[in-house]
Specification:
With about 375 residues, the chain is an alpha/beta fold. Helices cover about 45% and strands about 15% of the residues.
Length: about 375
């Protein structure tokens, strides 16, 4: 089996794509090629994972300036032509679009060449690249049931996350020593960092036993560390976090953004969450992801415009003072998890490619 995975840009696109590629290798001994762009995170993560990467030149069309849209529109035909050449050379059985700049040209080239295609969409609202090809793909793997309406032959598979998140046991909550995990992705979230800094005096007054684990990112680390030093709160402050499952295991409540991968990790770990959607995310997809979890009673959504110390402290305090609600949120979150996402996506890709069975029994 030969498969192309196209797209990338952010970790939310690249990390699930790598999990899919690894599952295709494991189950079908697949030869895998990635297609991305020069600016995306795939340039670091894909070669490090041992996969070949080819690049096309294409930019953004959605929520960008007129000049950028014109440049992208001019680049797009060349990008499709370049991607078609890569398909001619590699001869894939299936092309899997994972979203991001390179996904559109590669998937359009595959559609034009009548190569089987699979769209992977982790967000509730499909991104621009997947919307471009939604009507033409052979099938789609989606995270939310509501997303299936946008595609042909959609299957709810969930988003691949590390197995360690599923292995986190449900924590026995003690109101005498609650733990709040705060993070905003690998780069941190400045708005969340600032809100927590401003809320520290009130948190110290109302929740003096609170322990915080705070991933700040590089830019805000020194400022956040200094702010905690001026309090009596117990805290661990980190620039980055290489072992998020371990920190999830200690948390009674999580305060974070609501990108697709983060939402999937929250569900896998069964953690109650306060989501603060990034308001400038494309198509406002983070808000829609967070709202889907809130509607399932697995999370609370706090808009960034209301991220002042009163709203934030009230939200944290209300949840940590209600152990039964935390338990219900935990159960609701875990009910939305998909432990077999990578396997199901790989099987769907193989089915689209006309390969019905795994190559060896060892795959299971």
């Amino acid at each position: 089996m030969r498969a192309i995975l196209a797209g990338g840009g952010t970790g939310g696109h690249v990390i699930p794509a790598l999990a899919i590629a690894q599952e295709l290798q494991r189950r079908y001994q697949a030869e895998v090629l990635f297609i991305g762009t020069a600016r995306g995170l795939e340039n670091r993560l894909v070669p490090a994972a041992g996969f070949p990467l080819r690049l096309v030149k294409v930019g953004a069309l959605n929520r960008v300036s007129l000049g950028t849209r014109i440049r992208t529109a001019l680049d797009l035909p060349r990008a499709i032509f370049a991607a078609a050449g890569m398909l001619n050379e590699f001869q894939p059985d299936v092309v899997i679009g994972v979203g991001g700049y390179a996904s559109g040209p590669a998937m359009l080239a595959a559609v034009l060449k009548h190569t089987p295609t699979l769209a992977f969409e982790p967000n509730l609202i499909p991104g621009f690249a997947n919307r471009m090809v939604a009507r033409f793909v052979s099938a789609a793997a989606v995270h939310f049931e509501q997303t299936a309406d946008h595609f042909r032959n959609a299957v709810v598979t969930g988003v691949p996350v590390r197995p360690a998140f599923f292995q986190i046991p449900k924590k026995r909550y003690s109101p005498d020593s609650p733990t709040l995990l705060v993070f905003g992705g690998s780069q941190g979230a400045h708005a969340i960092n600032q809100a927590v800094i401003h809320a520290l005096p009130e948190l110290m007054r109302r929740l003096p036993a609170l322990h915080l684990i705070h991933q700040t990112g590089d830019r805000d680390y020194n400022e956040v560390q200094a702010a905690y030093a001026g309090t009596t709160l117990s805290a661990e402050i980190h620039k980055f976090n290489d072992d998020m499952p371990a920190f999830f295991a200690h948390a009674d409540l999580v305060l974070c953004r609501s990108g697709a991968s983060t939402v999937a990790e929250i569900a896998a770990a069964g953690k109650p969450a306060i989501f603060v959607p990034f308001p400038r995310a494309a198509d406002d997809h983070q808000r829609r992801n967070a709202e889907a979890m809130e509607q399932a009673n697995a999370a609370v959504v706090l808009e960034e415009t209301r991220l002042d110390e009163v709203w934030l402290v009230d939200s944290i305090d209300a949840l940590l003072e209600d152990p039964s609600r935390l338990s219900r949120m935990s159960d609701a979150a875990r009910a939305m998890s998909h432990p077999n996402a990578a396997k199901e996506i790989a099987e769907l890709a193989a089915k689209v490619a006309g390969i019905e069975e795994a190559a060896t029994d060892e795959a299971d």
